[in-house]
Specification:
The chain is of the alpha/beta class and 464 residues long. It is 33% helix and 25% strand. α1 (14-25) runs parallel beside α9, α3 runs antiparallel to α4 and α3 crosses α6. It binds flavin-adenine dinucleotide. Flavin-adenine dinucleotide is lined by residues 10-16, 33-36, 41-43, 47-48, 51-52, 114-115, 139-141, 160, 181, 271, 274-275, 307-308, 314-316, 319.
Length: 464
């Protein structure tokens, strides 16, 4: 049967927009459906771009306040939250306008409306219109989850959306959760002058990252005046005259923390509830994520999924890769390769930043890989000493025999940039010896990477 569209994309965020562009480039008839009041997707409107704009303002403020450390006299620096907010609005507005222009001028039909499946080849929109297609991509993103914590649903808690819209300095905030969003926003709030307390259920901040990285970032947070409770059991949340209070168990004691505001940063869940996935037999995991195979096909093979709605990572470049792969697979392109999990790249925009790529030590142990590892601290490196950037380290993992790079983790100043020194090396399956043949300028932060590489080169030579 001939359908009006070859490829119908539900959700025009990072995954959906890029998938649609690829499908158009392959000569397909494409429609993008998006039901948002404001087009642009999470990354531009309420995710990466606004958060990093604010975090950078806070970093500049912190640098100004650190003037005396560098022999500088800086008049008392403080945040003008209205101006910080206005700058963010202007910058994000520019990105959003550009994306809307791209969506509206592209060679696909942009259809506004919330879509749900009525049969495996037909979507219905809120106003009753229908859209038929041969292949579909679900890229509907995620929404903040509200775990069943007693009292949480009854108080006026903030989400990351609210923090990104602040045009005043809150006096105090208690943050539930210790993941990436929680940590990044905690430090932003602290730096603009808010009293911040993090209450986290897992044993360490930044679950999924190494214990060593979590400890280093926690040390920096506590040195900077953020109160952190990890390994807690939250008993309940209550709103009273003095603000919002959270009761929790920690090391056998019951503790209460109260603040003017509460930020629920306990995670996000797939935005799939209104899609009628059951009606067409699309399977989901217990956490609601759409299950896909390595080509991003759902359990209904002509329907694909990409981005936060299927995971497993909430990372923009991964969402884009998934969407583009789905578009190419649906077009039956030959020679495709699935997304390579051994190249997973992640950055946390705290200070010190955290960058990781490839396999972690936990992955390598689980896989039974024979690996060597070496690390080097920032406090012993010339450039970081002169920059007063002594938190952190570089750790590298390499195959024990030949020294092929398997993964790396950097905690430290600009780690999100530095970790990219390993991107091409990993993709090209380079060894520590290959990386050491490259030139490294002195005195740069990047130069610190050569020290663990040298150690590993020595170790692998012993095995050769
Ligand atoms: C505060 C914060 C900071 C972040 N920082 C980073 C970062 O620094 N780096 C990074 O890589 N990632 C970051 N992320 C995560 C990143 O933003 C997401 O992983 C990414 O934007 C997800 O893209 P997506 O295409 O899956 O979904 P989205 O961009 O959310 O797009 C989904 C689209 O689908 C539409 N839609 C939903 N349901 C329907 C429906 N039924 N019908 C029609 N349309 C529908 C929505 O309107 C939306 O436009 C951050 C997230 C947050 C919350």
């Amino acid at each position: 049967m001939k359908h009006p569209y070859d490829f119908v994309v539900i959700g025009g965020g990072s995954a959906g927009y890029n998938a649609a562009q690829v499908a158009v480039g392959l000569g397909k008839r494409v429609a993008v459906i998006d039901g948002a009041r404001k087009l642009g997707g999470l990354c531009i409107l309420r995710g990466c771009m606004p958060s990093k704009t604010l975090i950078y303002s806070a970093e500049v403020l912190h640098m100004a306040q650190s003037g005396p450390e560098f022999g500088l006299r800086v008049p008392k620096a403080s945040a003008d939250m209205r101006a910080v907010h206005a700058r963010k609005k202007r910058i994000v507005g520019g990105f959003a306008r550009y994306r809307v222009k791209q969506l509206k001028s592209a060679d696909f039909d942009l259809i506004r409306g919330q879509a749900h499946f009525v049969d495996p080849h037909t979507l219905e929109l809120g106003d009753g219109r229908t859209v038929e297609g041969k292949h579909f991509l679900i890229s509907t993103g995620s929404k903040v989850s509200v775990p069943p914590i007693p009292g949480l649903a009854d108080v006026a808690y903030w989400t990351s959306d609210d923090v990104l819209e602040l045009d005043f300095k809150p006096r105090s905030v208690v943050i539930l959760g210790g993941g990436i969003v929680a940590c990044e926003l905690a430090q932003f709030l602290k730096r603009v002058g808010t009293r911040v307390c993090i209450i986290q259920r897992s044993p360490n901040l930044l679950r999924g990252h190494s214990t060593e990285a979590a400890h280093e970032i926690r040390r920096a947070f506590e040195d900077g005046g953020i109160e952190v409770f990890a390994h807690t059991k939250i008993i309940g949340v209550r709103e009273g005259r003095g603000g919002i209070s959270v009761m929790f168990k920690h090391r056998g004691k019951t503790i209460r923390r109260q603040a003017d505001h509460l930020l629920n940063a306990l995670g996000r869940e797939p935005a799939t509830s209104g899609l009628s996935l059951e009606a067409v037999g699309i399977k989901t995991a217990d956490n609601g994520r759409i299950l896909t195979n390595r080509w991003q096909q759902t359990s209904v093979p002509h329907i694909y999924a990409a981005g936060d709605c299927c995971g497993p990572h909430e990372i923009v470049h991964v969402a884009i890769q998934q969407g583009e792969l789905a578009a190419r697979h649906a077009a039956r392109l030959k020679g495709l390769t699935p997304i390579d999990p051994s190249l997973l790249l992640c950055v946390v925009f705290t200070d010190p930043q955290l960058g990781s790529i490839g396999w972690s030590e936990k992955d390598l142990i689980e896989k039974g890989v024979a690996y060597s590892t070496a690390s080097y601290p920032f406090y012993d490196h010339g450039r970081s000493i002169l920059m007063d950037a002594d938190y952190g380290y570089v750790r590298v993992f390499a195959d024990r025999k030949k020294g092929r790079i398997l993964g790396a983790e950097i905690v430290g100043k600009d780690a999100g940039e530095l970790i990219h020194c390993f991107s091409a090396a990993l993709a090209m399956r380079a060894t520590v010896h290959d990386m050491l043949r490259a030139p490294w300028y002195h005195p740069t932060l990047a130069e610190v990477i050569t020290y663990p590489l040298e150690q590993l080169a020595g170790k692998t030579r012993e095995h050769q």
